User: Which sequence fits this backbone?
């Protein structure tokens, strides 16, 4: 394993997990649970589903630990498993926006003017993101929060680059409208 990618303590934990050490597995779970849960919750929008995906992801990670080469941090490797599990669940529900609907959307970019939202707290923004339609929420989360670019998103979701961009722009516009409505109410 490439020890430069993560700390020696993390490498020791991963090695212990590979040997079947359940205490090490529990420690890994404790270290990564909250961050991975937040990823799943942002992607799925429902706590119970996020919990289920999280459990499945950890089980899968421990079963496939022999494939971890240490080229990236363990957290990045685990995050990819969580994201893929979320996408599998979403695809199984067939809730992504159809390609036909996305192609009807113009590519007009919404205003980037987010000034004036300083009166809203982070909880309001998170809740507004969770209220987005699932397809929009997934693309927005992958792009803004997880740091994927549109090429990567199009490969992950098996959609065109243009569809990824369109869904992202519509999600931003819908989010801006929701935040404006929240601001008007406050």
Assistant:
């Amino acid at each position: 394993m490439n020890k430069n990618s993560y700390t020696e303590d993390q490498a020791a934990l991963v090695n212990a997990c590979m040997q079947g050490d359940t205490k090490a597995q529990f420690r890994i779970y404790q270290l990564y649970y909250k961050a991975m849960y937040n990823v799943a919750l942002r992607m799925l929008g429902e706590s119970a589903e996020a919990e289920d995906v999280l459990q499945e992801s950890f089980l899968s990670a421990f079963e496939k630990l022999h494939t971890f080469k240490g080229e990236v941090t363990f957290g990045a490797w685990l995050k990819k498993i969580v994201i893929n599990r979320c996408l599998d669940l979403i695809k199984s529900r067939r809730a992504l926006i159809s390609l036909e609907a996305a192609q009807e959307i113009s590519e007009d970019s919404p205003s980037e003017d987010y000034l004036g939202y300083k009166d809203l707290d982070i909880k309001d923004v998170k809740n507004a993101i969770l209220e987005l339609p699932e397809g929009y929420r997934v693309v927005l989360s992958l792009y803004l929060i997880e740091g994927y670019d549109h090429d990567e998103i199009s490969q992950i979701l098996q959609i065109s680059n243009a569809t990824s961009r369109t869904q992202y722009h519509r999600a931003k516009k819908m989010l801006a409208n929701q935040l404006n409505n929240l601001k008007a109410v406050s």
